[in-house]
Amino acid sequence: MTFFKTLAATAVGLTFLAGSALAQECAPSKWGADDELGSANLVSPERTLEASKLIKQGKSVPLGIVIDSSTPAFPPRGLSLQVVQPNQQGGQKLFAFNGNYNDDLMQLWLGIGSQIDGLGHLGENGLYYNCLDEKEISQITGLTKLGTHNIPPLVGRGVVIDMTKHFGVPALEAGQFFTAADIQEAAKAQGVEIREGDVVLFYTGWTDTKLESDPVAWVSGEPGTSEDAAEWLAAQNVMAVGSDTWGLDVVPPEKEGRPFYGHVILLKKNGIYILETMNTGLLVRDGVTEFMFVLGQARVRGTVQMIINPVALY
Amino acid sequence: MTFFKTLAATAVGLTFLAGSALAQECAPSKWGADDELGSANLVSPERTLEASKLIKQGKSVPLGIVIDSSTPAFPPRGLSLQVVQPNQQGGQKLFAFNGNYNDDLMQLWLGIGSQIDGLGHLGENGLYYNCLDEKEISQITGLTKLGTHNIPPLVGRGVVIDMTKHFGVPALEAGQFFTAADIQEAAKAQGVEIREGDVVLFYTGWTDTKLESDPVAWVSGEPGTSEDAAEWLAAQNVMAVGSDTWGLDVVPPEKEGRPFYGHVILLKKNGIYILETMNTGLLVRDGVTEFMFVLGQARVRGTVQMIINPVALY
Amino acid sequence: MTFFKTLAATAVGLTFLAGSALAQECAPSKWGADDELGSANLVSPERTLEASKLIKQGKSVPLGIVIDSSTPAFPPRGLSLQVVQPNQQGGQKLFAFNGNYNDDLMQLWLGIGSQIDGLGHLGENGLYYNCLDEKEISQITGLTKLGTHNIPPLVGRGVVIDMTKHFGVPALEAGQFFTAADIQEAAKAQGVEIREGDVVLFYTGWTDTKLESDPVAWVSGEPGTSEDAAEWLAAQNVMAVGSDTWGLDVVPPEKEGRPFYGHVILLKKNGIYILETMNTGLLVRDGVTEFMFVLGQARVRGTVQMIINPVALY
Amino acid sequence: MTFFKTLAATAVGLTFLAGSALAQECAPSKWGADDELGSANLVSPERTLEASKLIKQGKSVPLGIVIDSSTPAFPPRGLSLQVVQPNQQGGQKLFAFNGNYNDDLMQLWLGIGSQIDGLGHLGENGLYYNCLDEKEISQITGLTKLGTHNIPPLVGRGVVIDMTKHFGVPALEAGQFFTAADIQEAAKAQGVEIREGDVVLFYTGWTDTKLESDPVAWVSGEPGTSEDAAEWLAAQNVMAVGSDTWGLDVVPPEKEGRPFYGHVILLKKNGIYILETMNTGLLVRDGVTEFMFVLGQARVRGTVQMIINPVALY
Q1: Triad B162, B286, B175: Cα angle to 5°
Q2: ipTM of this predicted complex?
Q3: How many other C-beta atoms can be found within 10 angstroms of the C-beta atom of residue C217?
Q4: Which of residues 164-223 of B touch A (CB under 8 A)?
Q5: Do the bridges between strand B199-203 and strand B154-162 make them parallel or antiparallel, or are there none, so unpaired?
Q6: Which residue in A69, D20, D175, D296 is deepest, having the highest Cβ count within 10 Å?
Q7: Contact D225, D172 (CB under 8 A)
Q8: Of D45, D294, D311, the CB nearest to C59
Q9: Counting one residue from A and one from B, how many pairs have CB atoms under 8 Å apart?
Q10: Contact criterion met (CB < 8 Å) for B303 and A81
Q11: pLDDT over 80 at B79, yes or no
């Protein structure tokens, strides 16, 4: 394979000329030109200690939903699981103690259900976070940079803002967006302060009301952030932004032809992680607005996204 | 499909006669005959509050290792990842803003690298935890009971016991086991108290010294717990037991013909979770013996195991 | 892994006692106690030469249908395909000549659409063809005997019998079965002689009329052979039997509680291959009753079934 | 999904401007601007009848090799198979007759072992056969044109040319190429006439001598055709060209920076199929030079390649 890799590397070298022409369209990260972690740099002993003080009732809540082969997902994503009993066909038992065991294998796309978008998920003009060129990092066998396996545990203060309360509805509609002003107003009314390093989560009611009742509608659109909302959140230097929708950004988009541009603002321009299909209804119904957020995502080298289940502690 | 399922159900019904004959070989769970959670019932507000006080330095450490297609695993387990760029072939950019994105898919067995063993992983005489019969729960499309998606976040006090210090070696050898007495002695010498509801982790040096240097040896054997160690840990009512090895129990086994019997003791008989390939070297080298343990495993319905990355906070 | 394999082998050894108790329920193959090929032994220079003379018009017809991710299949079977462009992300071209290429990967169950059932597919009492015990051959990584990779090209005389003509309907209904007498009557009326070594195919109209119009109905039932039909076909020493249905046998079954028993008769008891979802409508509409049949199935070691596309030449 | 597809279509539309600029670099197919089949158009009743007369001894030979998870393949290609027993865990039998069955699933890349390269496999400047643009046809869920499922059975006259005899060696070396002159000379010496519509196969000894003994070497290089050989074969209007190597073209390539350019000549410029890892040693050792070639590849919509096992009849 050395042969092919050498040739391929040469080809990559040649095409990089085109790549570098685009370099002006990006600014290096404030965390340094070599940084791959973005806002995960905001995890600090001080913030972790502070966040730990938010554990007052001793409660812990899973922010991940349960997914299976019928969970709707952005095409062509899907999931298939098999539970098997190796070496036990025909009722064979194993070892001297008549043992039996189940093993399991999956074929899945990682962008299903509750997921973290790594900084190599969405970009523009061929570039991802910190001017990293798709030609360089997006290898078929795994991202060579920005893989989610590199992200340290995202630990810090989490806040949840209830947009249904803000709009006075049981659930926002697909296409209904909330702006920076909406977020600030809602936060103020709900007594939530957004601080540097926070994990900011929204509750729109979308998943609670639509995922089971109308899965096709659930995945075909969603309420979400406007572009200026993403810009404003980025300006607060938050660590991650998430919602109880499959894609955070409003769909259909606020501005024609610019769906998911909030992803570019957060991931690519600011190195801020996106958390999708967060089960924030559990927090809202429990009257919680701030909590300690702990996410340890399974670490598979070079993954773009990962299915996750962050824990809210309060 | 209704047709086949009906017939299959009938077949299951018939064979259950044989199944129930074995029922005497198991005792219902102390958490009730319907319980599927086992020691996860030990998560409580009190313990979570107590554990949160162990966060003193504000540090957070990932206990999961990074895995990829070359990570050795119990056969026939394996992993394959592809990073792709849907709709972008030929350099196409998406949307009005020239967007680009990576997506990723995997084919993997879930028992690779850092993993949690659910209570439906290992049993004996056809039964799993709480007398659940393999004939009933071990469906090809996913466990109908004991799936890891049901496990609430495992949150509590974690302790790590350094067995290399106990034995005065850089790393234990494959086949070298430690007993209940060893654990008690080591814990005492290291100032570690093991309490109900704890997550008890061991450091053997096995993964730190062997995984990279000799992956075939790493997966072909391991140091680990003896049967009486598993019994004793279960008697302490711990929530989970883990180690920096791929299978916790000593391999080759302490008693001939009884490999992995500690799995039966912990999982099946006591509903205690097993955590494998925990990166405990990070804790030992940082001089930590107790910490807050937080695990939110990705929730896929009916999974037997899950690749994980618990977070140690201290 | 040697360790585990040794232990597992011992376990297998022990349980074989139970296995051998069943041995009386099977008769060794007429092709010898070591035979794995069954009726593929009927391929002979004489028959191949004879069959070649059936090529009179110079026509060739594919008997396989086109399948994709939406093709209904016996649960939990499914299929997923991805076409990717390795090393070309961002519009990169390869090599000095600006090359581009597509590659493709699939995750699939092999029993989808047009398929051959190998002799290790269906059995009874734990035994497959030639008294081969499931405990011995049905390994998780592939059949150790009876894998379809071993089957030589099935080459010989093919005949098609039009059961819609026999019953005077456009298509048979689900649950409608045809008996040995029906087959003999239809064959006689249609001028078809069934000979030793033949590949006998049926046309029921089921796939032509139902697969697209009502895929759920298509896979939930089917017209097909009765048990005595399978017995009679086996008595003719045919090489393979197929139909334009997903499972050959009538579903719901002729006899309660005995679905797919024709599979046992053909595969296990007689070593006769089954060909499913054969596109026999093409032959019937072209007025053909006999032809040269050529099947070269892709050879993957240890496969139970294989997706196929036999060629009818006439 | 309609939403995304509409947007994506627009994006495709925009980028097609760039695509059409390249249109001059290709010539429409001689079989028409809509043609997707290329040289498969050469299958004709006359040629099929002629070819059937080559069946003289009544022999049939599989040209596909047996592959498994250890078969070396062009990276990142791989294969994994699982044989399972749904609904039979714990030794359950199915139905009134105590039935048992095996089912099988695979995760595989289609370019492994014996394979056909469809006309959408390799191109240049973003174009494939008949000026088809990668931007249009190379969808992640399958090729929208040039899928191998569309190829009719490739049936016709096959010839095999023994290049080891030509060079007087047991096997050619990696990097050793044969030219148009070599082919013509060898063909003449071996009494082989190459005609329009033929399937032309080569024997180099590469797979017979290297696949098992040195699998890494086998896949790292290969003897094969020079560029002028591909040009000359195309000029003979053959239907397909194959060899007992994994990639037909010589590797390392004849001309620096132009590996696999024979693929472009055959597939893209001339619509001629490529057959890889053909087990031609069987023919050579049996003294055969011409035969009837029959290939019915399994038909999965939108596949680029397919694992195959053509049958040689003589």
Answers
A1: 25
A2: 0.94
A3: 15
A4: none
A5: parallel
A6: D296
A7: no
A8: D45
A9: 323
A10: yes
A11: yes
